[in-house]
Design goal:
With 489 residues, the protein is of the alpha/beta class. Helices cover 35% and strands 19% of the residues. The longest helix is centred in the C-terminal third of the chain and has 20 residues. 40% of the residues are buried. It binds nicotinamide-adenine-dinucleotide (NAD).
Amino acid sequence: MIFGATGDLAHRKLFPSLYRLHKKGRLSERFAVLGVARRSLTQEEFRESVKKSISSALGEHAELEDFVSHFYYQSHDVTDSGSYIQLRELANQLDEQYSLEGNRLFYLAMAPEFFGTIGDHLKSDGLTDTTGYKRLVIEKPFGHDFESAQELNTRLRQAFAEEEIYRIDHYLGKAMVQNIQVIRFANALFEPLWNNRYISNIQVTSSETLGVEERGRYYENSGALRDMVQNHMMQMVALLAMEPPIKLNTDEIRSEKVRALRSLRPLEKHEVNDYFVRGQYKEGLINSERVPGYREEPNVDPDSNTETFVAGKLVIDNFRWAGVPFYIRTGKRLGSKSTKIVVQFKDIPMNLYYNTEETLSPNLLVIHIQPEEGITLHLNAKKIGAGMKTTPVKLSSASKSEDRMNTPEAYEKLLYDSMMGDATNFTHWDEVALSWKFVDTISSVWETQKEPSFPNYGAGSDGPRVAEKLLEKDGHYWWPVENLDIDNC
Ligand code: NAD
């Protein structure tokens, strides 16, 4: 059951992902999709819209008839109690028609203010009274801060147990984010070095070239900290920092991630601006085209204090990571679209090659999350020719573009996992709570301090100068992401 079935997420991601699962034979023949949204649509119109979404996402035209015959629609205002009864009847009827054995997945692809209401009604109007499994898949944002997240969670828990709630963080569905564990735990080469004896610092960058587009109203209340840091960035840090789980199952992996987040040193209010910096874009050039500044975007306050860029230093207080900073940065309207992790190893104890023209570069392990997918290891080797000069070399493994065409999209994997009851790549409440608590201190300071330098970076640039300074203080610098691209290797 998809709530918000006429929305952008359903059309761009959910319907094409369901279709790909169907095509790969990963969806049982006994399935029905019940779309729910406010707009009044006939069954036929809804099926047509599903077909359109699949053809525009995947360019498929043939064979859609049979697939969309499994789709049903109910126009329903989620705040109106009466229509849930109708929905229950339709769900029961489909259950019988497709022999679904009472298994129900409720996907909330709607604005977050409705999450609590829908949860309440699903229970009070009997939709969760079913003989099979019942699961709730819920989109971000999960709350606006710790308090609202806790309130929402308590409400949802009236209708669903923790293990029935699948909180989406679509970064966890990305192939290379899932690969972090494999790189770490399946290679004798890395895990022994994965600590403060050998690693100097870790940098996680997620940059976008897009601006806020038509999401100004949402973004004004969110900013980059809530939109990106609390969830995606902190999830990547948890995966990089966690201890090896004793088994690769949901509970063990999640509990190690929770432990990593618990080891995060909380910030005191007076420390916030020493550890975290913010930016807001002004007008500039993206792909040689002039784009407006954030304050000129629709539904944005012309004097907005909202950050569109965040860089920060996370300190993890445990034996493994003491002394190793985890730097994160994320922003909109930057020079390139790229998500990468750079693990910078410490310098060797003594440089025997000090008299070469080049200074020795540190070894780097780069994990390319998107748009490129792959890993690169930066080493030093002997320069060809006479003498003992060194030169940097890069060993790369990139998913080929045709592989990438076939790599399941994050939503495809997450939908499949939720149907199979595998919650590993969804966030547990404890992770959500810990990351909100961490981020809340930062937002409480930033909301009360107007940033006088805003706007402080040009669209198309690498972000504000303060982000560079944050690392310079520690004697480090950001590895420029575009130079690390696999294509440049
Ligand atoms: P949207 O505005 O495009 O769609 C909202 C849907 O909710 C529509 O189908 C609309 O009919 C329905 N709706 C609104 N009010 C309703 C009511 N009272 N009763 C019944 N239906 C109602 O939103 P979206 O972009 O698809 O986003 C949905 C959720 O997914 C949000 O939580 C968003 O944060 C999250 N999300 C979206 C994307 C994306 O790419 N669009 C990405 C990540 C997360």
